[in-house]
Amino acid sequence: MADLQDELHPTTEVGALDDLPDPFEPGEPYTPVSDPDTAPLERARAILAAHPVADGYSGLPWALRHLPWFDLELGESAVDTDVPRLREGHVGALFWSLHLPEGLAGDRAVGATLEQLDLVKTVVHGHPEGLRLAGTAGETVDARHCGRVAVLLGPAGASALGDSLGILRALHALGLRVLTLSGASWASEAGLTRFGEEVVREMNRLGVLADVSGASEETARRAFAVSKAPVLCTRSAARALRPHPSNLPDGLLAALGAAKGLCMVPLTAEQTGPSVRDVADHLDHVREVAGPECVALSGTYDAGTAHPQDLGDASCYPYLIAELLHRGWSESDIALLTWGNVQRVLRGADFTARAAQQRREPSTAKIAELDG
């Protein structure tokens, strides 16, 4: 494991590239970074400067497809996300969704996902002063220490696989790190089939995280049981507070917490409500039911949804953190919410993949053999 430890923790030379403090890790002593007597918004910005947001979902790739020209480093008014606003919001890492519009399936879904992967890489390479591709926990920390926003690829939809584990491996080789387990015959309302379970095992071996937002409860519970790596819900709030189909009932939130997964609460009016206070209510509830190490944030910007007041774009995270401080959240719990919990999940995927690769070869299973 020594070589993996070296990969996951930046060297002194990398850390010396700027004066940012090291990210807070669960279980380590925590040193406050702000004065409790400072106004909440100023305290929020100070905490975020030390522990930036790892945003669980951005719809930017599909939004950019429809723009004839854009410059994310100077600023782009046609979208909710650009480098200046990411920096103003203290966003340190961002998962770029590869989800597709409904109706795309089969070869068309595979092809459209590949096109989005290509677009994201082109966009990131075209904005080198602000963005950097990352695939592991260590790479996200390295990007942050270099003053860049780490871009992680995914989630993609299950239809992107074309029911082929070979395509899953090819997508991983191109950078995919999160896959949503819904919209396929092997991940349906009835739950995961035998082939679906094999998909999850191969994802574990590769280091691709499973996302069960929007999946059936049966699929989610089976994913918790089968996956050796933490499971994500990239866009799920509390159904007890708002009965949206993608929000999680308390029983599933508790099961997610027991499995050490991560519920990433979306900043959308549809799922959480029209105000910052509504979003904070969901964060309070998820933290209470699943635990403080199992809650994170999902901006869900540029995904075609309306956002709560004062949370209209990627620059607005300090307003949410100020509300949490007003409610008595500790700085250490906020550090977990914004950065530490996502780092834990990424490290879990890294360790699980390294161990699984020592135990098993790439799977050659076919859907017709397991589910036929």
Automatic annotation (TrEMBL):
The record, for InterPro entries, names:
Metal_Hydrolase, Pept_M19
Q: Where is this region: Disordered?
A: 1-38
* Top-level lineage group: Bacteria
Q: Where is the composition biased (Basic and acidic residues)?
A: 1-10
In Swiss-Prot or TrEMBL terms, this protein is called Microsomal dipeptidase-like Zn-dependent dipeptidase
Q: Which organism is it from?
A: Streptomyces pseudovenezuelae
